[in-house]
Amino acid sequence: MTTTTPGPTALRGAVGTAHTRVEGRDKVTGAARYAGEIPFTGLAHGWLVLSTVTRGRVRDVGTAPVLGMPGVLTVLHHGNAPRLRTDYVGMLGTRPDPTAAVFQDARVPFADWPVALVVAETPEQAREAAEALVVTYDEEPHTTALAADDPGAYSAAGHPPAEVGKDLEAELAASAVVLDEEYTTPEEQHSMMEPHAATARWDGGRLEVVDSNQGTTWVRAELAAMFSLDPASVRVRSEHIGGGFGSKGLRAHQVSAVMAATELRRPVRVVMTRRQMFSLAGHRSPTVQRVRLGADPDGRLRVLDHRSLNRTSTVFEFVEPSASVGQVLYAADAHRTASHVVRLDVPSPTWMRAPGEAPGSFALETALDELAVRCGADPIELRLRNEPETGPVSGLPFSSRNLAACFREGARRFGWADRDPRPGVRREGHLLLGTGTAAATYGAGAAPSTALVTAEADGSFTVRIAPADLGTGARTALTQIAADALETVPGRVRVRIGDSDFGPAMIAGGSMGTRSWAWAITAAAAELRERLAVAPDIPPEGITVRSDTTEAIGALARKERHTFGAQFAEVAVDTATGEVRVRRMLGIFAAGRIVNPLTARNQLVGGMTWGISMALHEEAVRDRNTGRHYAPDLAGYHVATHADVPDIEADWVDDPDPDDPVGIKGIGEVGIVGAAAAVANAVWHATGVRQRHLPIRPDRVL
Ligand code: MOS
């Protein structure tokens, strides 16, 4: 079932072979430069100042003493910053988050809201002055805690509830087995290794921003709109990225850097600190989810009713669509899913790896496990009994659906057949052992992109696409894809990325980047080969073909397009301390054609590791009284460390996408989906104590 592959030196057929990252040597030797460390002559440094109150208005920014401090060049705040345009709808269909459109008015809608930027000759001078800056406020009362019954909860226009099939309450009343439970997940932070950083400068009438982001043309479009500039006069570069996970779009650092560079007429760099990222970079909202299931005695679902609630800020609406996972996974006679949102005095949440599916699958896949117990059914059998023929809500056919194959292969390799279903009966000294499983799914889409492919006079090829490689290995995968499409070897292909001048393309997000760019590269390469077949002479400047996949992707038939997976976990629970240790994890995925088994495994194992972290550790705790985080840093916010991560294996079944030129589906997010539920279900199996609230802290186990 595993993709077996010829070695990396094969003359043909690079796709499907293990290939180390093409920029790997540059990264480990430090030759690869990140946005916060690229040198510029005359560089000035900005330091963001964040509000110390949770809600209110800025009364005064005491700039005078600070302007006299060593090296200080300027202090930007709402009283002197240029006015920005914020009434546009951006590339991703939303208005900009005012958290990024900094210094436009005196209001403070949440704790650690940006109120000023201090710019100085050195980062140390900027920081010292920023810490000395006295900002006074008129404080207002605030509410930051999410409650299931908040009267302010509403259904967002972009995320309407879905209800199909028979009458839900009647079906529930007629169900032999009924489950009605509440599940919660906490605020979670995607605190990627590389903090947000941008350097802005004016260069011969063009604005250049060297930045760490998930889409250079996306950030370019936002900056151009906000500053009322011709997009052609803005260039955004983003060559190496140390993680994005959904948070690296337009944020306060780029906007404030552009403001300062414009005022000072010199390059200005703004880097977020780790602590600033906790409020300025977005996060995953806590969720409160109610799942009601009604089933026949054999576990066939009559009712699937999943309602999720998340909180957003008062300035930006972000819905974590947690309930939507059931729209893909299970058929039911009465099917209702709704993701609601409530506005509180908290920072704006954003996309965080598998937004919706990650917390949603925790609730739904735990509920399915509970239902299996109540029906006396095996949890895998129960899931297979509820496999839908078509999209449970849409009625559309699946492009391919290999969830059952994942469960079969996973069960075989994990040794599921030997499992004693009874909870709390496997002892090893003071430990209780258990195993659990859960399903995973994530959307598999493609979005219009352009690529430039050049046949060079020396016989090599250059490929250009605008977005960046977040660290996933996308650049390497694209090298392999281009090599195959050009009928050459990866060593003759140079992939250049991370420059908005290369033309519009899908961002590195939504598990859609590599697939979307591969499509464009394949199209351009095909045309280039046709041209070379007719006229093989290459001029010194090379021959360049530009592709645009808008039409091809627009012509795709409407189908349910998803990846799937089966997660398995084994845990040991200490009966004295309540400590949970994951002993092993296995994920088997149906995720399209795997371009590079090495980097794909990295991605999937990374997602599963994050699932362990989500299950057992991650929780950003906000003080109800102050509305602020107790510990906004990686000392206070626990993430899984090496000692927490055991033997994890990810593998896949054959599942090429029938409608994709390369067969790709996209693997960026499916690895985390269901992973926390598999761990939670294993904890139940070990102890008999059901875990409906994350993280599974010792006090929740004992
Ligand atoms: Mo991902 S959360 O779409 O960057």
From TrEMBL:
InterPro entries registered for this protein in UniProt: Ald_Oxase/Xan_DH_a/b, Ald_Oxase/Xan_DH_a/b_sf, Ald_Oxase/xanthine_DH-like, AldOxase/xan_DH_MoCoBD1, AldOxase/xan_DH_MoCoBD2, AldOxase/xan_DH_Mopterin-bd_sf
Signal peptide start and end residues: none
Chain segments carrying region Disordered: 1-21
Domain Aldehyde oxidase/xanthine dehydrogenase a/b hammerhead positions: 29-141
Keyword terms: Molybdenum, Oxidoreductase
One Pfam match: MoCoBD_2
Protein name (database record): Xanthine dehydrogenase family protein molybdopterin-binding subunit
Species: Streptomyces stephensoniae
Lineage, highest ranks first: Bacteria, Bacillati, Actinomycetota, Actinomycetes, Kitasatosporales
